[in-house]
Amino acid sequence: MKQILEILEESARATPEQISTMVGVAVNEVEKTIKKAEEDKIILKYKTIVDWSKLGEKEVWALVEVRVTPQQDVGFAAIAEHIYQFPQVYTAYLVSGTYDLAILVKGKNMHEVSSFVTEKLAPLDKVQSTVTHFLLKRYKDSGEILEPLEEVKRLPITL
């Protein structure tokens, strides 16, 4: 099962026939494995990574550090669930260090993101503080390099 999942994680477009050839398992076994993984929520989603900036689409991303007060018996789970339900929240993690949650937020512009943080996130009862870091450039996303660095061609210096 692990090999099949690794192939799908790298390329969600791989067909059961292609996977069958790659791992040496019958096509119907590959199909059963995938179906079971979907039912068991091992496979959560098939995803396409789009570089919207190449189409002229504007989007602003921010990483928001959030310090929260954990609740008795549920810890950070209840406040994290409340936060990740907002449509602006793209990703939410419990982290170690100086803050408790790392939230990746997406909006159409900086004002939209900052309004979300100041009007919806920061005022929540269990939120102690937030620090917002606007992402300036994406170099790599979900393992994919978005813009490979061009080799710098310098003229040799002779003395």
In total, how many beta strands? Answer: 6
* Shape category: flat
Radius of gyration: 21 Å
The overall average pLDDT, rounded, is 91
Task: Count up the helices.
Answer: 5
CATH architecture of the largest domain: 2-Layer Sandwich
* Main beta-sheet strand count, sense and barrel state: 4 strands, antiparallel
Oligomer: single chain
What is the CATH topology classification name of the largest domain?
A: Alpha-Beta Plaits
Helix and strand sequence:
HHHEHEEHEEE
How far do the termini sit from each other?
62 Å
Structural class: alpha+beta
CATH-defined superfamily of the largest domain: Lrp/AsnC effector binding domain/regulation of amino acid metabolism (RAM) domain
- What is the number of independent domains? 2
Placed side by side, the strands forming the largest sheet appear as 2-3-1-4
Task: Please provide a brief summary of the model.
The chain has helices spanning 2-10, 16-23, 27-39, 77-84, 110-121; strands spanning 60-68, 89-94, 101-107, 127-134, 140-141, 144-145. With 159 residues, the protein is of the alpha+beta class.
